[in-house]
């Protein structure tokens, strides 16, 4: 019952979030502005809001007492690797993470979403001892999904690293990223995340996986569009041919 409620909340909120974010840029990072109530440091904000995504899914699977198969365990491990990076490593590595601010309101929303999402996906994994029916098609689907997840994660981490290395130690300003996927999209880190969770949805072939992929796009596509507009407004020499997040498409 709780899983159904969590899925309904995620599916219903996705188009609402997407619509709002196309009109109102979420106030963090380069778009931070006053007027959104109390705030935390960016580093603390990321750690707090991502913590449920790291913890809830594993605790849900463990608490179920169900035995899961090797592919299910592999997917769980991939999820945990991603969120170990997002919760622990990414905030520590970010430049200016101790001085930049993150609205507490957004932290609270993300905390709730990550709790619901982790529970929904954890409940699915606990109830699914095998992700395939033993056939070629289902096995191929899982392999392609895992490959997409791994490729998306690598892209995401590479793009984050590139952004950090644009700044010298102590610098907090912004510069134009260049090279690789940056020549095609303004936000390859978001493209990587979208690829990851589409891969997860394909590998799990589940409503929780689909819900997460849909919400990821609802959250990141408008953000990518806002970032691209910000770059164009800030830098006169910004390459106008770059798309926002999906190469050659948008």
Features:
250 residues; mainly alpha; two-stranded antiparallel sheet; 7 helices
Topology:
Layout: H1 2-23, E1 39-41, H2 42-64, H3 70-93, E2 101-103, H4 104-126, H5 136-165, H6 188-204, H7 207-234
Antiparallel strand pairs: 1-2
Helix pairs in contact: 1-4, 1-7, 2-3, 2-4, 3-5, 4-7, 5-6, 6-7
Structure, described:
The chain is mostly helical and 250 residues long. It is 67% helix and 2% strand. The chain contains seven helices and two strands. A two-stranded antiparallel ribbon has the order 1-2. Helix 5 packs antiparallel against helix 6 (188-204). The longest helix has 30 residues, at 136-165. The chain starts with a helix and ends in a 16-residue tail after the last helix. The mean pLDDT is 94.
| Low-confidence sequence ranges | none
Q: In order across it, which strands form the biggest sheet?
A: 1-2
- The percentage helix is 55-70%
Distance between the termini: 37 Å
Mean pLDDT: 94
What does the overall shape look like? globular
Rg of Cα set: 18 Å
| Structural class by secondary-structure content | mainly alpha
Instruction: Outline the biggest β-sheet.
Output: 2 strands, antiparallel
> What is the tally of helical segments?
7
Write down how many β-strands occur, each being a DSSP E stretch of 2 or more residues. Answer: 2
User: What proportion strand?
Assistant: under 5%
> What order do the SSEs take from the amino end to the carboxyl end, as H and E?
HEHHEHHHH
């Amino acid at each position: 019952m709780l899983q159904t409620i969590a899925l309904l909340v995620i599916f219903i909120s996705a188009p609402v979030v997407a619509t709002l974010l196309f009109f109102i840029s979420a106030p963090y990072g380069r778009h931070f502005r006053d007027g959104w109530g109390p705030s935390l440091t960016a580093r603390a904000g990321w750690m707090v809001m991502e913590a449920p995504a790291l913890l809830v899914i594993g605790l849900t699977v463990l608490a179920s007492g169900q035995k899961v198969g090797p592919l299910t365990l592999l997917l769980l491990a991939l999820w945990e690797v991603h969120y170990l990076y997002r919760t622990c490593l990414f905030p520590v590595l970010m430049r200016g993470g101790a001085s930049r601010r993150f609205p507490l309101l957004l932290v609270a929303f993300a905390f709730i979403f990550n709790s619901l999402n982790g529970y929904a996906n954890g409940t699915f994994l606990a109830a699914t001892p095998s992700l395939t029916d033993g056939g070629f098609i289902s096995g191929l689907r899982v392999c392609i999904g895992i490959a997409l997840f791994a490729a998306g994660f690598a892209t995401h981490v590479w793009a984050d690293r590139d952004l950090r290395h644009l700044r010298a130690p102590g610098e907090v300003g912004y510069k134009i990223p260049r090279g690789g996927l940056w020549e095609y999209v303004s936000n390859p880190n978001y493209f990587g995340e979208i690829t990851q969770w589409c891969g997860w949805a394909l590998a799990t072939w589940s409503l929780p996986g689909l819900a997460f992929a849909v919400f990821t796009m609802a959250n990141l596509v408008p953000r990518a569009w806002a970032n691209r507009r910000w770059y164009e407004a800030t830098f006169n020499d910004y390459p106008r041919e770059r798309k926002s997040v999906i190469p050659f498409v948008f």
